[in-house]
Design goal:
Elements (H helix, E strand, L loop, with lengths): L1 H22 L3 E4 L5 E3 L2 E9 L5 H21 L5 E9 L2 H4 L25 E10 L2 E9 L5 E9 L4 E3 L2
Parallel strand pairs: 3-4
Antiparallel strand pairs: 1-3, 2-3, 4-5, 5-6, 6-7, 7-8
Length: 164
């Protein structure tokens, strides 16, 4: 009898853990202190919470967020374009820069005062318009130190990535 109730309890705990992990939604947070405008173009740094381990899903999420941000600028009448967006995994290290500016220090200062030292960069995205199609250049940082660079075409008509 006791082993049956223990098994039921373990199944309930497993269900709760799985449902919590499945319900976690990806969240994007702009580091407003680091948003810059250079020559009429925006450069953003974005923190990502609960990001996917799947590279394909991560690329799709990055593009969706990029497009949403571009639509928001246009809807506000802002004619500037997004030149680049850099994504970082949200950690206690990267979250520091939500409230504090970077401090460039000498090589012997071991405190983390620049976001690059957090080693949580997920990737970057930028776009160009080629023959009426938006082409995204995505650079993804891999865990083993390799970098993936891809050019992906976004079809405005279908609102999807295009293979052509």
């Amino acid at each position: 009898m006791k082993s049956k109730s223990t098994a039921q309890f373990l199944i309930l705990c497993l269900f709760l853990i799985l449902s919590e992990n499945c319900s976690r939604k990806v969240e994007f947070t702009e580091i407003k202190r680091r948003t810059t405008i250079i020559n009429g173009q925006y450069y953003y740094d974005i923190l990502v919470s609960n990001c996917s381990d799947s590279i394909g899903e991560l690329k799709s999420q990055m593009i969706s967020f990029y497009n949403m941000k571009a639509r928001n600028l246009k809807s506000k009448g802002d004619h500037k374009i997004i030149a680049g967006m850099k994504f970082y995994k949200k950690t206690s290290c990267t979250s520091y820069f939500l409230n504090y500016d970077e401090e460039h220090t000498d090589a012997f200062d071991l405190t983390v005062k620049e976001i690059e030292f957090c080693n949580n960069e997920l990737g970057t995205i930028s776009e160009e318009n080629i023959d009426g199609r938006i082409v995204y250049m995505i650079t993804l940082s891999k865990k083993n130190g390799d970098v993936i660079v891809e050019f992906l075409k976004w079809d405005k008509k279908t609102n999807r990535l295009s293979e052509k």
